[in-house]
Amino acid sequence: MDNKRIASFKNKKIVCLGGGIGTVNLIKGLKQYVQNITIVVSMADDGGSAGRLRRLYSVPPPGDLVACIAAMSNLDPIMRELLLYRFSGNRYGSDYSLPGHKFGNLMFVALSAITGDSNKALTEMQRIFKASGKILPSSSENVSIWARTSVGEKVYREENIDLGRFTGKIERVYLRPANPRVANEVIDAINEAEVIIAGPGDLYTTTLPVLLVPKILSALKISKAKKVFVVNVANKVFETPDYAVLDYLRAIAKHCKAKIFDTILINNNHLEKIPKKYSRQYSYVNSANIPQKNGQRFIKADLVNSDFPLYHDSKKLAKAALELL
Q1: DSSP secondary-structure letter at 193?
Q2: Residues 207, 164 contacting (CB under 8 angstroms)
Q3: Structure pTM?
Q4: CB contact burial 251-266 (16+ within 10 A = b; e otherwise)
Q5: I need a labelling partner for 76 at 20 to 30 A (CA). Which of 114, 157, 177, 271 fits?
Q6: Rounded to an integer, what distance in angstroms lies between the CA atom of residue 107 and that of residue 102?
Q7: Cα dihedral 191, 139, 169, 232 in deg (nearest 10)
Q8: How far apart are CA 210 and CA 205, in angstroms?
Q9: Are 158 and 46 in contact (CB under 8 A)?
Q10: For 217-232, how does the pLDDT look when each residue is reduced to its tens digit (9 = 90+)?
């Protein structure tokens, strides 16, 4: 991309939906080119440090919010590392123990107590760490998810779905409450967006918990923005086993009762070898047999992080997304 084209991206209004490591990788790249980024973060997380603090202090799960603040921070790298520092120990340990917690998560809880409001705490953390853009929770109240599997089993809690504590395959996920409150700021951002990007991220535990919030889904359906879905580089064998690109799209259409996204961004570099440590848990998403005429535009590109090929490369992904503008 030439400098003139790069400069044209600066004031584009982009909304990113998700909040997990996939979203973090996306926004790390986008922030180099775009100033006006809003990240709408899932509030369904109930595992690890975030889940423990959520249960103990009745705060929104801070993990993905904190990760996005770190990604968008304009302070020295050491400050970003401080936010993400995890105390040694079991992240799934006792709710009352320090080991396994991230420093930034504890800071969020402390600021929530000091300000008396978790939204004020989030605003303060973004100010303290000089985070670009806006980072917003997808709902103004905590939500939980549960899933129904192909064998009729009901699986409760995001952590149990994420860690594969079920039998059969995930058929559908649901929100509790089904229609949570949403801040006007979230809907305004979607209404004003020129580009909306969902993913990459865990389909059933990160992406769909945002898309399924009724007020967000309604706003997405009427939005005139370009809507992009980024397919994961790799499948989790217990959440999206052997999923091809079309399986992701079918799942979204089934849950949302519509084809939300007009453009699908797909990694086509499968030459990088998945590390042996993860080869039983992950496999590349099949990007073959994409239909030419189904009302959606499919873009294939080398998007993989060569150093850790389970994830997207931030720079590659950002450039590919911006090339769609």
Answers
A1: -
A2: no
A3: 0.96
A4: bbeebbeeebbebbbb
A5: 114
A6: 9
A7: 50
A8: 9
A9: yes
A10: 999 999 999 999 999 9
